[in-house]
Amino acid sequence: MSASSAFNDEKGGSSSVGEPEYGHDPASGGIFSSDYKRHDDLKEMLDSNKDSLKLEAMKRIVAMIARGKNASDLFPAVVKNVACKNIEVKKLVYVYLVRYAEEQQDLALLSISTFQRGLKDPNQLIRASALRVLSSIRVTIIVPIMMLAIKEAASDMSPYVRKTAAHAIPKLYSLDPEQKDQLIEVIEKLLADKTTLVAGSVVMAFEEVCPERIDLIHKNYRKLCNLLIDVEEWGQVVIINMLTRYARTQFLNPNINESLLEEGGGGEKTFYGSDEDEDEDEEEKEKKAEVAAMAKRKPYVMDPDHRLLLRNTKPLLQSRNAAVVMAVAQLYFHLAPKAEVGVIAKALVRLLRSHSEVQYVVLQNVATMTIKRRGMFEPYLKSFYIRSTDPTQIKVLKLEVLTNLANETNISTILREFQTYIKSMDKDFVAATIQAIGRCATNIGEVRDTCLNGLVQLLSNRDELVVAESVVVIKKLLQMQPEKHSDIIKHMAKLTDNIQVPMARASILWLIGEYCEHVPKIAPDVLRKMAKSFTNEEDIVKLQIINLAAKLYLTNSKQTKLLTQYVLNLAKYDQNYDIRDRARFIRQLIVPTEKSGALSKYAKKLFLALKPAPVLESPFKDRDHFQLGSLSHLLNAKAGGYQELPDWPEAAPDPSVRNVEVKESVPEWTKCSSREKRKEKKVEKPFYSDSEGESGPTESADSESDSASGSESGSGSEESGSGSESEESEEGSESEEEEEEEEEKDKKKKKKELKKPVPETESEQSSEEEDRKIKRKSKQRKSDSESESDEDEESESESSQSESEDSESEIEVKKKKKTAEMKPPSKPVKKETKKEKKEMSLLDLDDFEPAPSPQVTPVNTFLSNSLVTDLEGLSLSDSVLSPATIAPSSVLKNYELLHRITGEGLSVEYCFSRQPFSPDANMVAVQMQFTNSATSDTKNLHMEDVKLQSGMRVKEFPEIELLSAGETAMAVMGIDFCDSTQAANFQLCTHTRKFFVSIQPPVGELMRPIFLTENEFKKEQEKLLQNLGQLMGMNEITEKLTLDAKCRNEHAIVQRVTTAANLSRVPCGSDKECSPPVPPPDHPVYRFAGRTVTSSSLVLVTVATKEEGAAQLTVNCEKMVIGTMLVKDILLALTQ
Amino acid sequence: MIHSLFLVNASGDIFLEKHWKSVVSRSVCDYFFEAQERATEPENVPPVIPTPHHYLISVLRHRIYFVAVIQSEVPPLFVIEFLHRVVDTFQDYFGVCTEAAIKDNVVVVYELLEEMLDNGFPLATESNILKELIKPPTILRTMVNTITGSTNVGEQLPTGQLSVVPWRRTGVKYTNNEAYFDVVEEIDAIIDKSGSTITAEIQGVIDACVKLTGMPDLTLSFMNPRLLDDVSFHPCVRFKRWEAERILSFIPPDGNFRLLSYHVSSQNLVAIPVYVKHNITFREGSSQGRFDLTLGPKQTMGKAVESVLVSSQLPRGVLNANLNPSQGTYTFDPVTKLLSWDVGKINPQKLPSLKGTMSLQAGASKPDENPTINIQFKIQQMAISGLKVNRLDMYGEKYKPFKGIKYMTKAGKSVLQRMHIVNCK
């Protein structure tokens, strides 16, 4: 490099003599000859004390560098000024240093200490610029210093410095590839950075240093996808290209089932085509289609991460930066399902109005795309029409695209357009047009004759180039069906008199030779003429004359024998050895002599074999094995450093490698291992859902957390939550303790809160039960948060939660741990209170009713506030008292209705709240939580277009008028599932979008608990069994099972059963008094009872335990299907 | 990514070079010069030229080639787009981007290039950030600098570099708060010889000049946003808002910027506001030909068509033209055969025409090419697509800004009418 630069300097110097000088002031004037002198005065200026002189000197030096002149002898004088106070001088010194340090390594070291000092500067700008220059100095000795500086900067507070560190990585790598391993560590660290400023730069470093380490991307994949839109445009290009490669290794080919889907999937294509503007719907539809197809065969299901990438890149098609648009376009081309690729066409066509260089690159890529996906660009056909003002290279590319787009329907328009092109003054372009016509003619049989006629007319064109090109193309076309076109061949034979272009002459001769049987009279005459002019012809024509002679000799030796001899003799003495060789070879072959071997017998076969017609192919065919938009694709050759676009994998690699957070859709607290990481990602959604899972099944608890305006407060923040609900602002400020004391107020409040989501549910005359229920609820909630937060002063913990996210998350983590450890014992403990029993009796009034009324209260946990502390102790001691009723526990399972990604920021979860649905007792209450994590508001959330199985009914939730960004809202809807597990399908509509969603109930939610005594239970059971003989069919199902090791004590069993199904425990005599902390030795029997919601059929469940964890599960139910499914569910719950 | 940059002028001299990594000899440009020689027209030099060790990616603007040297795989558009951005920046800084301007400001150019790329990867391309780093040269500042020795390099880290709105600096202050928007639409069309439109499309931009104090948050809405078929935004525009409500919501950069480019659906019929009637005939046996051209306005909603310029590349056989314009002036270059007629404003009462004779080379055959006429025009106070801005609102700041919106329609690069030359026997 240094040698070449020396050469360059010389050249620059010498060539500059003739150049005009730039500046005209005497100081910067003067020419090369006086360089030495001038350099002296520059040195003087640099040594002076005046900044203005230094600046002047540096400016002149930089001007020299810019012109490519050598200024290296000034190095010592310049480097002294590296610590200059004047910022512009300093910057110019940096420019100089970076340019010449490589040549003067020893002297460059003098400056290092300045930069090292700069790295410690409190000003981030100075730190960054010090690192930038330090890493730009290509001096091998300082590699360790650079490494250290990069490492340090990578954990700098300022993202700008971290960005600079990312930039420095490839610099160091190119200087010393040995450092790769250490650099990868830094890259890994920076990849985890969550600022948009760093993302682009670090991916760039990744691509230069370790593009093969695709595994580093896994954990950052989703973050990169989500950040993408905010990254600066250059970074976007790099990230998109990298992600394209990544996706190719991690996801399945979305077009793999293309053919299958087209025939079986209900015409996927048509519905894609019909609503292209609503592609989000498409996804939903797609999902639905997939679900539908699921039963039949294993369909292709797009990985949500794959979908995430496609969705998050799509808006970037609107970027002003052509490179970004192209990057997205290639991503879609390589990764999207066929039906979705079309969206890129419009954006690419837009780029055609940009600078001609942009057009050039885009057209190359469009040309490749049109071969695979012609339909995509067909609507834009006219955008590729050629303008006389286009540069030739653009014209030729447009022609290519037009040719690729031609089909039966549009060929006439295209040909008409081509006709005008032929009259263009740009002859290269005309030639290209003629070739394009030829290709259209070969590809589309219908117009072959028309094209041929047109081309024949061109043979009389005055321009020889046009004629020649036409001849060549006609030759190719004629090969396809020669017998029909002897006229044309005759016409062309006449042309030999006029056409001088060798290629054209050669083509005509070849044609006549090949089809001499069709023109038996003319062919010998042409040969005669050619023999006459043989010596004056070009080599290529001579060869064809020999060919023609040979063929005629074989077919018509009578007339042409002598002529052939003559031609061969002429060729024998030709100057060109190829021609001499050819002549010798042909003579041996066709003229039979005694010496000639066996080959001459086959001469006819050799010469007159049927030749396949040439295929006129696009030069862009198969270019798409290069990643589109890449340099390699443009050049159709692998460029240095090109990363091959991998083929789709056969089977998708484990998608869970990308999990950095707990999947939102499975909000089980047991899974919350990587809590901190999740926090970092600022995902609000999963936080909610998780805390919900812990905080209890009550509606109000949920509605509170939602109204807490996205402050991620968990179960505890009910105060602030309700506070934000305008009416009750006074109450909002109350602490929870106050609330406890003032239960009345509380009740009222709760009532109101309940009203909000379900206005119709609670009328004014809402009964006492209603109030009671609410009271219970609030208590229960209380108890939950208490026991979980593990704090004596709950208010304290709550306030800390709402105050800062960090501390909150810590607590959250603590909580998680605690609950994970203590949950099983703590739950039942809550229930064993004396107060509870009192309330129980109240409850019983309802529950004893044979037919449950709409008011049937779910059996929740009842707990007096005063017992909170007792409970703490109890839960720790793990002593289990037998509760009269076991509540379904607080672990209500949340199901995902709409993922935040699919919903473009809107996510919806639902759970079966196990509350009675007051407007209609036969309905199951489904409580939905809407979270808007998008940046814009969502309006008019409502449901539409409910599709149900016959008999099913739905009570829609009231429309939510506004859901501001970051907020959550709650609503309850009722569904009458008709005691079946059929899904209820409907559309969730916002003011802009519609999402197809469906709710499918687990069988356990189709029932409500009833209270039975043991005796009643047995009676009912018998009744059911007696029905066996009647038409009721089989209604007892018994399964043997082995209980899970963790599930052998009473409360675990009870809890698991009640979680799986909404049943209530039947108190039994043996358990009634007190049970020891360990599972009782006498194999207790647990009974549970409930009724299905719609038909009020009894559901009786018996779990009889035996030795060694063995047990027998019996389910009695009139509804066989429900019974069977329930057995399965409970079995699963008990054995896992 | 980008190794080096060479600036080459029309005569093939390298007048500036800049290296971001190790120095690449300027002899690498020889490959470029070869391609330049091969190309018949300056714009026909291939934008990407492979050489044994490097790749040259070039753009041609203002008759200067910007040749970037690349060593390994990089998306070519990335480089091309960047080079154009460099040119735009120069134009922004110096008013023009000519060889002379670059040579005069070589130090500023160098400083800019240094900031725009780090190790070949774009660092700061946003003009607002650059202007904070390196102040654009003005006569006043140059004078002050020479006297006081102060610099035109900013001393602070550009705030935009770190903020969430990198395109806007903080602490902007104006006494007159103004926001101007220019809606400029360009028509590109191909018209066949009989005057019917083959293809026509409208490409529009909204250029803004916003001088507002503080951090204003603007929303701009249209009366008829459905007209816009395809749009591309300045990064400041919130895409989601546009998707949902068809409203442009943005925190504007300070100063001039292009807010939006759009394309009006070609489904809507585009009426070309000008028509051309032509009649060119050559008679057998005569070296003279008749030339007759008439212009007229068409559907301009009462607005005047101004700055009309008609140009045409006549067939090579034409030796000279002797024409008589009813208004304006015409020139014919016998070497390039370029005829151009500066018409000026079209008066609907008296249509401008250009009549006369053309002479062919003696004995030359009659031309059989069909030339095209390129028409340029401007219409003030009208957006031909009918796009109308509904209102502009400002949030986030208390003062009342002055708002202005201007419409203009003009011919794009090519409003082309194909001509037909009649050769009579």
UniProtKB/TrEMBL annotation, chain B:
- Quick check: keyword Thylakoid in the entry? no
Q: Where in the cell is it found?
A: Golgi apparatus; Cytoplasmic vesicle membrane
**SUPFAM superfamilies, per this entry?**
Second domain of Mu2 adaptin subunit (ap50) of ap2 adaptor (SSF49447), SNARE-like (SSF64356)
Instruction: Name all MHD domain ranges.
Output: 176-417
Record-linked PROSITE patterns: CLAT_ADAPTOR_M_1, CLAT_ADAPTOR_M_2, MHD
User: What Gene3D superfamilies does this protein map onto?
Assistant: 3.30.450.60, Mu homology domain, subdomain B
Superkingdom, according to UniProt? Eukaryota
The answer to keyword Protein transport applying to this record is yes
Keywords assigned by UniProt? Cytoplasmic vesicle, Golgi apparatus, Membrane, Protein transport, Transport
Name the Pfam families on file: Adap_comp_sub (PF00928), Clat_adaptor_s (PF01217)
Could you say which protein family the record assigns here? Answer: Belongs to the adaptor complexes medium subunit family.
Name used for this protein in its record: AP-3 complex subunit mu-2
Q: State the encoding gene.
A: AP3M2
